[in-house]
Structures are given as C-alpha cells and as structure tokens.
Amino acid sequence: MNQNEKWTKKTIALVGNPNVGKSTLFNSLTGLHQHTGNWPGKTVELARGTVRHKGVLYQITDLPGCYSLSSCSQEEEIARDFLLTQPPDLVIAVCDACCLERGLLLVLQLMALSDHVILCVNLMDEAEKRGIHIRTDILTSLLGIPVAACSARNRGGTAPLLIALEKAAKSADTKITLPEPGNGLVSSADLVRLSEEICSQAVDFDNAAYDRKDRKLDALFTGRLTGFPILFLLLLFLFWITVSGASLPSALLSDCLSSLEGRLLGAAQNLGLPAALYEPVICGVYRISSWVVSVMLPPMAIFFPLFTLLEDSGYLPRIAFNLDRCFQKCCTCGKQALTMCMSLGCSAVGVTGCRIIDSPREKLIAVLTSCLIPCNGKFPAFLTLITLFAAGGRRGPAASLLTAFCLAGTLLFCTGTALFASFLLSRTLLRGMPSSFTLELPPYRRPKIGQVILRSMLDRTLFVLGRALTIAAPAGLLIWALANVRTGDVSLLARLVALLDPLARIFGLDGTILTAFILSLPANEILIPLMLMIYMGNSSLLDIADPQIIFYVFAENGWTWQTALCTALFLLMHWPCAATCLTIHKETGSLKWTLAAVLLPTGMGLLACLLCRLLFDCLPYPI
Ligand SMILES: Nc1nc2c(ncn2[C@@H]2O[C@H](COP(=O)(O)OP(=O)(O)OP(=O)(O)O)[C@@H](O)[C@H]2O)c(=O)[nH]1
Ligand SMILES: [Mg+2]
C-alpha cells in the first residue's frame, strides 16, 4: 500500500491578489522554493506541493495572483479555470493586511464560488509596523469563515493558518454562507460596498497617512530628473561590488580546481588507464566544468543576492515605471522592463517571465528581444574583454570601478538595442498599438538579508550554475572530440576555423572567434577558453587566469581594438544559447518565431560588427 494512502487527503488552492505573499506562504508550508519577490505577477503558472499536518495530507496549489475571477488577464484565466475545472477541497484566500479592502473583493467572489473558503490575512507584521490593526474576530463573525492572521515570511508565521486548516479539515463540510445581504451577490458594486463595510468595522488605522514615506521615496526613484541617474548609480554600485568582490575567490577557486585536475591526471596515469579513456573525461568534461564553476560561481554568488535585495525592496517595478515612457514610444509594454531584469540572470528565465505581459503581440516582442540583454553567462567573456582592453589588464579598486562603469554603460546600451529592436518589430512584423500598462507599485519592504542570501544562493545561483554545468559538460566532450579527431593531418576544429575565416573577416572577426561563438551555443561561459584553446593549437580547453597572457595570445593572433570591439558587439548581439532557444520554442510553440529570435539578434550583431569594421577601415592609421 502506498504510504500516502494512510493519510486523509485534502486539496487546497492558494488564491489572492498579486504580491500578497501566496508563494511565500506556499514555500513556508511545503518547504519548496517558488520564486518570490516584491512585485506583482511573479507566479505565472500553477505550482504544486504537499504538507502533512495532524494526519492530513494537504496537496497545495499556488495560483498566479488575480484581482478578480472575471479572467481579464492570462493569470486570472489560469486561476479561474483551475478553480472551476479542478475545484479544491479548500480555498485559502490570501489578503494583504495593509490593503484588506481590495483583497476582500476577491474573497467575496471566491465565497460565491466555493463553500470552503479560509481567509488568510497575510503581512500582519508589516501592517502592525504601519499602525494598521486587523480585528480577525470581527472578520470571522462578519464573513462567517475561518480567518487566520499570518506573517508568512517570519518563522512560525503560518501557525494560525495551520490551526484554521485543522479545524476546516475536521469538519467534513464547513458550511460557509455569505453575510446578509449575501448569497447570490454578483454585482461588483455590491461587492465593493460590502467589502468597504466589513473593513470599516474590522480595520483600525493609527495613522491614515501611513504610506507617506513610500510616496517620498517614489518621488525620488521615479522622478523625471532623479529616476534615471539613481538607476545608473545603483547599477554601477551593483557591478562594482560584483567585480571587485569576485576576482579573488575566482582565482582561488580556479587554482584549487586546476590543481585537483593535475592530481586526477596523475592518478589516472598511475593506474595505467588508457589516455583515450581519461583524457576526454578530465581534459574535456572536468576542465570545462571547473572553468564554468570558477568563472561563474563567485560573481553570481555576489550579484544574485544583491539583485534579490533590490527585488525584495520593491525597486524593480519602479524601473518598469521609469522605462514605461520609452517602451510606449516603441509601441510595446512597460512590463518588458521587468522581464529584461529577469533576463539579466538568465535569458531562459526572462523568456518564461514574459507571461506577465498580457497582450500576445507585446509578449512576443519581449520574447524575441530578451536575449539582447546580456545574461550571466555572457558576463565572464565580457569581463575578460573589458579587463584586457578597457582596464589594460590592471587590477585593483580603480580598475574595478572602471570595469563596473563599462558594465553599467553596456547594460544601458543593451537596453537601448532591445528598445530599438522592439521598435523595429512593432513597426514591421508585429504592428499594433501599445496596450495600457497597469502594474501596481508595491510598498517598499525591508528585505530579510539572511533569507535573501540563502534563497538567492539556493534558488538562483546554484540553479543557474547547475544548468550551465549540465549543458557545458557534454559540450566539453564534443569540443575535445572536434579538437582531437583528425582527417589527414588536420583536426576537424582547425578545418572549421579555416572554413569560417573568410566570412568572419567581413565582420571584423576571425575564423577562431566565429567558431568559438558557434561552439559555445550550449553555454556562453566557455567562449574565451575556447578561443584560447584554438589560438594555442591545444587539444583541450585552456584555463588561463592571467590577463597579460590572454592579452599576449590575442595580440599574437592579430587582435586589434577593432577585433575586440567587434567581438564585444557580437557577444551582446547573437543567437540565444541552446536552453533559451528551447524555452522560446516552448513558450511560442512555433518554430518560425524561434527562428526569428535567433535571426533578429544575430542580424543586428552582424550589422553592428560590419559598421564597426567599416568605421575602423576609414581611420587613417590602424589601432
Ligand atoms: N514583511 C513581510 N513580507 C512578506 C510576507 N509575506 C510575503 N512577504 C514579501 O512579500 C513579497 C511578495 O511575496 P510573494 O510570495 O512573491 O507574493 P505572491 O502573492 O506569490 O505574488 P505573485 O506571485 O506575484 O502574485 C515578497 O517580497 C515577500 O518576501 C510577510 O508575512 N511579511
Ligand atoms: Mg507567487
């Protein structure tokens, strides 16, 4: 007999307005790691988990946030369809204690739909801080349903909900009736009036102007004169900390992993294993994996927590608000700024995030332009190019600041190219008017630093690293094979380089660079080691940490400022990595649009490289 069959089973749906803490509640109950953050619309599809409590196995579904059940948006449609087609045993209606009145509208709609609703008033800690007091006893008597006051983010903050669940689970049919005038309420005007009435009795405010501090911060972060400079300074700070903090751990990690490689090789030789057996594994799979770990792990372990702090504080929707005017001019949606922020971590995540955009046309534009925002995988190669050519191979605080400045500038440039591409698409293939943009600006929240570090390490850093590794490891094997399988006296890799060289030179690159770009389709992180390997005629990837040596190798192979600039441009604008292509295909369900997502950035990149080359050709002397 299945273990679970001993338990009474109950299905539960978590429903509520966006950004009220449904996923935080879900994570706290189930121990899973759904994406949470301080902006509305993060959860875009159903997430399921279980919790066992006092003899009952609860199967919980976290639904996307919705304001009503009238299915205006895709998320509302998903939530409503789920409730209608798979009615759960219990519905937990989650409300934000700081704006209960709005949440109650949905609660009343849910009560009309289901007899088994529990009200969970979440964010009680925040409400207390703002001087908002919720009288749960009055809510219980007025609504006639169990009410639990929770602080899902805090330890033990979901205990009242478990008690409410326990009560509801014991009574097989919790009969819930709407208060008078109640049953059969359909008019939204009636619902609004009713929730106003309930709140006037159940909510006390110490200070009616409780959100004055938020408004002051908004004037600063979204002001016409201050919004963009603050955004740039924040980006600069983020990159500076990442760059200056990551270089030492990266070098240490690289030393450790390469010394381990030496030992592994030694051990394999001592055991008398044939070279054909251990070389592909150690010099192919292990070497590429250790490169990916040492190059990616330290910057990500710094960047993601900092980014999550920004996300949890509520700053991301303000970026979307600031950029909305630019997006409107390009006939697209301001929410695209949020999906671009997601793409910074990983383009595939950004593509999935495009579901928060309601209009199919604008969603497609966001998907097609998502890889124009450089993801974490592109940063190692870009950092190397900046360190070599802009910072002249120097290290130290000043060089870190210059590098951070270049990175922040690059990000603005990339935002510009994404806007330009969106504009082109909205004037050609995807014509149409911009839809109205309703994104709620959430209150500023003080993030929990410890939780942020832990969550961003587990949910983001290790997830992205794990995915890069699963793709890079087999790629290491393939690259090793290409470099070692020979026809005549020449390896397959050398033949490919020679074949591509004439074409690459038209665009200011060379055969090696273009080959490295093609072979790093699985993961952009391996671009620079691949180039070094091909230039040095090596049969396996090279992990050279010293910028002076890399500079020397590049210079020996004819690199100039023009080559560096063209490589950087093509790095920023070329086909999405394999994982992103697959995600685009999954999201659009169309080979045509997946191909368009490949061709658009590649076309833009080649054009930019060509222009750059022609510009350099016009110079009176080569640099
Ligand atoms: N202070 C405080 N913050 C909370 C609490 N519960 C959630 N949060 C924060 O509120 C924000 C939103 O939480 P989520 O769980 O992502 O909200 P959601 O309802 O799932 O949001 P959508 O999926 O976008 O609809 C996050 O920054 C959480 O850390 C709480 O009880 N107290
Ligand atoms: Mg959620």
UniProtKB/TrEMBL annotation:
Transmembrane residue ranges: 221-243, 288-310, 364-389, 401-425, 462-483, 503-521, 594-616
The entry's keywords: Membrane, Transmembrane, Transmembrane helix
Statement: the UniProt record of this protein carries the keyword Transferase: no
CDD domains given in the database record: FeoB
FeoB-type G domain residues: 9-171
Name the UniProt record assigns to this protein: Ferrous iron transporter B
Organism: Faecalicatena fissicatena
